[in-house]
Amino acid sequence: MALLEVNRLHKNFGGLTVVNELSFHVGEGEIVSIIGPNGAGKTTVLNLLSGIYEPDGGEVHFEGRSLLGLSPHEITERGIARTFQTLRLFLNMSVIENVMSAAYAHTHASVLATILRTPSWRREEARIRALAEEKLAFFGERLKGYRYDQPAYSLSYANRRRLEIARAMAANPKLLLLDEPAAGMNPQESREVASLIGQLREEGLYTILLIEHDMGVVGSISDRVIVLDHGDKIAEGSFDEVTNDPRVIEAYLGREGARGRK
Amino acid sequence: MEDFLLRLPQTLINGLTLGSVYALIALGYSMVYGVLKLLNFAHGDVYMVGAYVGLAVMTVLIPAAGAFLPIPLLIIVMLLVAMVVTGVLGIMIERFAYRPLRNAPRIAPLISALGVSFVLQNFIQLTVSPRPLSYGSGTLIPTGSALMVGDLRLQTSRLLVIGTTVLLMVVLAYFVRSTRLGRAMRAVSQDPEAAEMMGVNVDFVIAATFFIGSALAGVGGVLVGIVFFSVRHTMGFIAGLKGFTASVVGGIGSIPGALLGGYLIGMAEAFASVYISVTFKDAITFLILLLVLLFRPTGLLGKPISRKV
Amino acid sequence: MSLGHERQIKQQPVTEEEEVRIGVDEWVAQVDRRRQQRSGPWGQFMRRWEAIPASWRVALVALLLLTAPLVVQSPPVLDALNLTDADFIVRTGATFLIFSLLAVGLTVVVGYAGLLDLGYVAFYGIGGYAYAYLASDFVATLGITENGIHLPSLIALPIIIVITAFVGWLLGFASIRLSGDYLAIVTLGFGLLFVQLAMTLTRVDVFWLDRSLDLTRGPNGINRLDDLSFFGFQLESTLAYYYFFLLLVGLIVLIVYRLNHSRIGRAWRALREDELATEVMGMPVRRLKLTAFAMGAGIAALAGASQAAWQGNVVPTRYNALALIDLYAMIVLGGTGSLPGALLGAFIFTVLPEVLRSVQIASIFFYGGLVLGLLLWLGLSRRFLVVLGGLVAGGLVFKVIADVLWPGLDAGVAPTEGMVLNRLVQEWLVLPANFELVGNIAIGLAVLLLLLVTVTTRRWRWPMLGVALYLLIFAWETRLVVEPAVTRILIIGTTLVVLMIVRPEGLLGKPRVTVV
User: Is the per-residue pLDDT at C38 higher than 70?
Assistant: First the structure.
């Protein structure tokens, strides 16, 4: 059985259908990309999966259990964490605290234990710190050492994207949802992101569902690609399959453009 | 029941009078919130200054020119002078206490506003008087002067308040809807940065908003002086709160909302003091506020907040 | 902390190649620049102060607060201050500690969780009134008990804290859907409603009695509350209360500090930064908000009950919007979200008004502030000396001219005795007979000119500044010194505005970035 099963997911915004009867699945250990032109409903799918929006119809099952009606933090507890296309870091908190904060879902220290600083609290706090350092170590030297205590706002754009991924990892998810991890990066950095995502699967053992515009990134790492256009799934398959699908070409280039290409 | 009916017309008039004043104050809160997303807590004190300016004009003009200056003209002069003075005061407050803080954390202008409020109140207390002063009953409008409609007595002073307010509202509605500056104001309240890029002089629009909002509060101050006589340097605090409540109940940022809220609060207060108890009138105002916000978090005519992801 | 960073940065030489690979973090450069910007006397002082290890700093402050009453009460200090007893000073100290408690509680709600709770003083009031119910004869008048309720403090205080925390939780629960300004408005309404009810619940009809009940005694409040007592030891003197409050402050600061540096504190601060991201990253936003509300309410209740016991009474006006404004001014002045800032803010706001009561000290503040302000603005430059010298000389010249051309003008008698400085200045000023009226006008003119000076860049701003300062000094000597009660609020109000413009993050706060 697949890790994530989405069945006839549906979402309207005031009469406008944004996601239309969408069905797909993501298997354990897979890297699946969702692509599509702007306004195709990609980010809406992610928002539906992470519980920010309520779907108007359809079902979402994660590890065989339904996610419908759960609040976002409960979904994260179940094992789905995400990043944001627009970057939503806790800008005035330090780099390490950004990552440590996401460990909330799987830690348990009570208010009383915190006030008394009991041994179990100390152990847990040390564990959180170690976890955060481990996740940040994924990015080599960039987010290490003196960077730990710097405020997140002092990071460069690319480093902020990395920090968001590290923060999502600290929630100990099985499934990572990445919303355009290479947006705003230069070609060199994009290639790095691609190899990083591969590394996340190999070393971090995460299953990954990502939205991406950079076809270089999508092509180099995806096991499967799902193409959305105006909320409809118009193609699914390997990168080569979908990029040669006439409907996909039409969606991206328009009818005229597609004809010209032929 | 008979008692209820007997007191109904007078209560209605009282409610409309109070409501007019609250609406005038609420408009300033609402307009400023509309363009700056700022709660201008010094606004109540601008209203207080308006009341004092009206009084000053009166005390100067009556001995100097009272003999040949008809009362209606005198009132108009008082209103105009108060509007100009409070309007300029509003511009100054914006220029010196808020503009430097436009990019500061949200709470900074709030504290700055409190500082301005302290300064205005104590400045008046120091330079004018710590005791309440009076416009004098019957100085402007003879005591008991009223318009009789059938059995109904409509006091002239209250009609003046309601009439002036309605007139100003009509002018304001025309202004916001149909003039260049009004359009610019609406543009700035939608998105200041985009408006700036489209060639709107945002600083000027904000200054104009403060001028208009403060001038309306100044009118409110003078009218209160004419109807209720007594003015005091602390009067801005509770009136400001009421006006603020009114703008929130109606939906802060919305001009019709400020009107609706003002009259609603005014009516509620008038009815509460007649039919329930004078002591509970303020409590009832805030109860209305709590109830409205719990069921319509953005006020009666406010637009729901859209959440961007 | 900051020194450590700089050292580490230097230890890692960045090769050109590596620099390209990492990407030039222009933000890092900006942060470093900002760190170095903390110059001026305050920045200098803060850098020295922060060089002391944190535990030493805490110990130093604690020691200072512990010994302060003893030092103040020693005869030589009393003589020097020209006081017969130090009770007044200890009382101010106790007030400072109560406001510290309140400011620390507010720091949790506003500073950490970012919830703009303007109903906070209501919890302070609920704590006070709850104590009045649980530890005085008052309940007897309600016909429920014979002699009222007199719970021992060790039982009463926890009950009050729990009840008020629950009320805080309820208010949070009711307003959980509101965010930002709307939350502020609803909570403000709640706070005002509380004061209104305390004022007006004097004739409440109940079905089991044929008379109406006075639940709050209206504006007069409830008197004759029990003193706090623990294990048979009753707190009676102000000094005993001072030390008890100090203990409470220490305890609460420790608790809040520990919570802040833990999972829940991180979640609170995340909440202040970005509510949606907090929820999506697995933190239960609702529960976190409610915990913060309840926590703040509990601390406020503790302060309210202790304060009521110390004063022996509760009055509704103590919990009105002015108290709220004071509290917010405190935490913002100190730096929102900073515990030492909350304490510093409370200190400044409770001690400064008391200090400014005296004409002498207020004058020192005024003239000191004037010179210091000029110095900070212009630096120790020639311009500073020219402005200052020009002011003194210009004043003298004006006096001579006035005496020659219009002999009747300078006919006023000195309005205050004051100290030597005041008398000197009054000799230097041209004092007309009706100096009160002229003083009133001078205040307005001085403010106008000063504001103009700050916005214009023309050459004539310097002479204008001189005139403004002359008018200001005139207003000070003729009007402001005479009305200290008004003056100190004017000073505080002006300070708030100026501080927000110069340092919106407060004295001890860190500059915050909202959108980049």
Answer: no
Q: What is the DSSP letter of B106?
A: T
Query: Which one of C24, C262, C264, C272 makes the best mutation probe of the A interface by having the most chain A beta carbons within 10 Å?
Result: C262
Q: What pLDDT was estimated at residue C515?
A: 58
Q: Is C357 on the interface with B (CB under 8 A)?
A: no
- Burial per residue of C233-256, b for 16 or more beta-carbon CB atoms within 10 angstroms, e otherwise: eebeebbbbbbbbbebbeebbebb
Q: Which residues, 6+ apart, have CB-to-CB distance to C305 below 8 Å?
A: C127, C128, C130, C131, C156, C157, C160, C161
Exposed / middle / buried, residue C456 (Cβ in 10 Å: 0-12, 13-18, 19+): exposed
Higher pLDDT, C341 or C459: C341
Q: Compare C101 and A255 and report the one with higher pLDDT.
A: C101
User: Which chains form contacts with chain A, at 3 or more CB pairs under 8 Å?
Assistant: B, C
Pair C351, C410: CB distance under 8 Å: no
Q: C12 pLDDT exceeds 50?
A: no
Nearest CA in chain C to B109: C500
B122/C contact by beta carbon, under 8 A = yes
What value of ipTM does the predicted structure carry?
0.91
**Contact with chain C for residue B278, Cβ under 8 A:** no
Whether residues C273 and A90 touch (CB distance < 8 A) is answered with yes
Q: Please report the sign of the dihedral spanned by the C-alpha atoms of residue A255, residue A259, residue A260, residue A261.
A: positive
CA distance B211 to B77: 18
| Band of pLDDT at residue C2, cut at 50, 70 and 90 | very low
pLDDT over 50 (residue C14): no
Predicted confidence (pLDDT) per residue in B140-199, tens digit: 777 777 777 777 777 888 889 999 999 999 999 899 888 999 999 888 888 888 888 888
C280: distance to nearest CA of chain B, Å? 11
CB atoms C184 and B115 under 8 Å: no
State the nearest Cα–Cα gap between B237 and chain C, in angstroms: 9
Please state, rounded to an integer, the average pLDDT across all residues of chain C. Answer: 82
Tokens of residue A37, six digits: 């032109």
- Name the closest residue on chain C to residue B286, using Cα atoms: C189
Is the pLDDT at A6 greater than 90, yes or no?
Answer: yes
Q: Which residues of B touch A86 (CB under 8 A)?
A: 309
φ/ψ of C222, rounded to 5, equals: -105, 135
**Cross-chain Cβ contact C178/B293 below 8 Å:** yes
- Per-residue H/E/C for B249-291: HHCCCCHHHHHHHHHHHHHHHHHHHHHHCHHHHHHHHHHHHHH
Instruction: Give me the pLDDT at residue B24, please.
Output: 94
pLDDT band for C1, please (50, 70, 90 cuts): very low
Find residues 490-509 of chain C whose CB sits inside 8 Å of chain B.
Answer: 490, 492-497, 500-501, 504-505
Q: On the CB side of B9, how many CA atoms lie within 13 Å of its CA? A: 9
Give strand pairing partners of A209: A32, A177
Cβ-defined contact of C496 to B283 (cutoff 8 Å): no
Q: Name the percent of chain A lying above pLDDT 70.
A: 97
Range of lowest pLDDT (A39-43, A45-49, B3-7, C416-420): C416-420
> Which amino acid, residue C476?
W
Best of C169, C177, C258, C266 to disrupt the A interface (most A CBs within 10 Å) is C266
For C234-250, the pLDDT digits (tens) are 888 899 999 999 999 99
- Cβ-nearest to A114 among C1, C262, C510: C262
**C186 chain-B contacts, CB cut-off 8 A:** 289-290, 293-294
Q: Is C179 exposed, middle or buried (0-12, 13-18, 19+ CB in 10 A)?
A: middle
Mean pLDDT along residues C134-162: 87
